[in-house]
Amino acid sequence: MGLTDYRALLIDCDEVLVDRDSGVWAALQPLLDSRGGQPDKEQVLAEYGEVVRALYPRFGELGFSGLLCFAHRQLAERWGLKASWEEGMSFARSVAVWSLFEDAPGAMLYLRKFYRLLVQGDRDAEDRGLLCERLGIMADDFISLASDPLQDSEWLQANALKPSEILQVTRPSASPQASSGVCLICRGRVKHPTPCAADYCINSMADLVAQHQLSLRR
Fold first, then answer.
1. How far is CA 142 from each of CA 61, 81, 131, 139, rounded to the nearest angstrom?
2. For domain 3-19+99-217, which architecture applies?
3. Span 75-127, pLDDT tens digits
4. DSSP character at residue 192
5. CATH 3.30.360.10 fits 20-97, yes or no
6. What is the pTM of this model?
7. Domain boundaries in the chain?
8. Angle formed by the axes of helices 20-27 and 41-55, nearest 10°
């Protein structure tokens, strides 16, 4: 299918629209200052990812803020530091101010003229409203990662969509569903898999807009 044949985009929130890594790195600075030295950003973010993945089975119990709070505490323990729960909650609440990638607002504004825009990610209820406002989507179009809309026949029927009509806009660390088209976005220094098995392999939301404009001219 061509880009203009899809009716909806299912877009990853973090790493595609929201600069999660920069947000986490900035929020960890007080803890890293206590650690001292010159921490390697990629190593720190890799450790953060390991801790979050280990905690994820408890997501239903902790919620997103609780998961981040525990992740902060476990990172402190790894590094031989003491961190209060207040510091952990301050880290968790930083999610509300994680910045969007520079091209995300303009791309969303353009793409919503042609598609139903669905954003999938983890956020507590109190953070979703502001994020949806920043992204220009309705609250019902923010979908939890715990849900699988492409396999949810009731959701698909209620929204008059078929899996084949939905293009997943995702990042390499995710696991896209094979029942739908896939657009893989590799931002920054992240390299596309070789060969790239996705339907579209691009570097940014701005590139997706450019590809769509090319499709309209064909």
1. 21, 36, 9, 6
2. 3-Layer(aba) Sandwich (3.40)
3. 999 999 999 999 999 999 999 999 999 999 999 999 999 999 999 999 998 89
4. P
5. no
6. 0.91
7. 3-19+99-217, 20-97
8. 100
